[in-house]
């Protein structure tokens, strides 16, 4: 079948060079799209990379309001809110991803905001409230992007301040008592100093009923503010500075198959504070809160031989949560975690784009990252204290705190990279590049509550004492033989060749290497369980084409790829010989072989009608599964064979010339796939459709618009993730929105 896809790609490319010679009158040509997928501004159709890009207008039409929404529209991308916190997204792109958000793990699909790497997955569900475009790069990013990844990258580019006064606002009301307001205003100070201020606020009652406490859960309260300043210092120097603050509250709680979108936890959300252990043992504090403060700076200087950029980022993230992972009607939950985390990162990149003569175009630079993470977390379990301390099989009704500890882990990364395109002639271009990465990580533990400590709480409305069962610190790790430091140096190359068949058709072939460093299983309750895991490495080979046809009314971008992943970092169950129970650990559990195909199509056959489609095919197989990975299923997790998105928009001009009536709809389909690594039967999600639609009126001058919209319009119930039990996707949502602009 691999040969069939390759032949199909080659025949399509050859046919494309013929079709473009036909002159067909066009009523509506497709706009040119610019991206920075190679760390310089280029037309999407000239970039020999598998990248999807959406402008602000396209995101509005497709109802892409936060980064999680892109999973509907990108081929071979599966994603969901992580199990528990709704602020964290787990992405699986071309079969590579991770559901673990603790700070000793790095995601294989990275997120960037204005070219600044976002290290932590804890708050990566970014609200797209004033964005110029979003780009999704598929495949390893081992050369030009700031942090090596094996799966891909999501790059959010915010809008720069305008040189004229302008303002716009959006007001929304929707199902589940959802209110939102957002706005932005451009205020140029003078010709040299431009400013912009933007903000949003969302409040949502929630859609999950707690059958034990009577509360409504899985709601949201979030806000964000951003201020941008652009200094046009002279013709050669531009300095962009932005300060951003965001706060998000939201949970994604476990349900049961018998009662989807209903929960049974006895922990209340209307008392106490998330992350507070004292509140948890009294049945309070259910929830998840994140606050982020970020500073972005980009100083761009045309130095004659090229454009030199100094890209600086600083990000501070605080996350507190109390979550029940078992959906049991107990006050502290059958297994609950109280977590308080502080995460800071600093990144500095120096990048140079330039040309040498008429034939060489290059990008190179240096990258540095320093990250510090502090996490205080406690595991609380019901019915865990044995009546006979010498016999763990005689469990009584008393609750306990398995362990309460403080984790401190750091990462320091230094990289240097260079990529050059050599134009052999007007049609053939050779690309070669490499990145050197040196990365060091450290981990340390201290005990918050020593073993044997008694904590006063309640259980089923009665006074109770919670004994702390275990404790350990860094010295215990060392005595157990667990390394507290890891270092890795790696060179990741890329080579490629492209053929510009004519002005409208590009064909390319590339080989790309990427890796991500190792880490530790930091959630274990005993020092021997803090097992390290090593780096994950991927080689991807891709044949693709990009073409505009039928007088620029039809755009087809397609590719076939083959990827080999060595030492796949995979969450799986491992038998603990001490407790005779299964510990869920991340380890280098197997190798992974993937191949597939992707196609994105845009077509404007007549004026005011735009059609689009995205199709992905993926075939994934484990290779050389480790005998220690006892619960790894035979099928890789979150790898549906097919993913499809199709739809369109149609504008109906009104005869009175007051504006347009706008209709839009799209449908996304995912083939059946497992949502757990172990492939348990209950985690198999059958193939399903999600339908989206919108209709409304937009004034001729664009000053105002009124729309009715819905997501998951058919109210499809589907499993998004599985951990102990199922986590379901969001139900149908409808909303009315009013947009104003000046």
Instruction: Give the DSSP E fraction (strand runs of 2 or more residues).
Output: over 45%
Radius of gyration: 26 Å
Q: What is the number of helical segments per DSSP (H or I, 4+ residues)?
A: 4
What class would the helix/strand composition place it in? Answer: mainly beta
CATH superfamily: TonB-dependent receptor, beta-barrel domain
The overall average pLDDT, rounded, is 90
| N- to C-terminal distance | 55 Å
Tell how many strands the DSSP assignment holds.
44
Which shape, going by the Cα principal axes? globular
Helix content: under 10%
In terms of quaternary structure, the protein is single chain
Q: Might you state the CATH topology name?
A: Maltoporin, Chain A
Largest sheet: 22 strands, antiparallel, barrel
Short overview:
The protein has 742 residues and is mainly beta.
Could you characterize what this model shows?
There is one protein chain. The protein is mainly beta and 742 residues long. It has a single domain, classed as Maltoporin, Chain A (Beta Barrel). The chain is 5% helix and 57% strand. It contains four helices and 44 strands. It has a 22-stranded antiparallel beta barrel. A five-stranded mixed β-sheet has the order 3-10-11-8-9. A three-stranded antiparallel β-sheet has the order 4-6-7, with no helix packed on it. A hairpin with a 1-residue loop joins strand 42 and strand 43 (725-728). The longest helix has 18 residues, at 2-19. It is globular. It starts with a helix and ends with a strand.
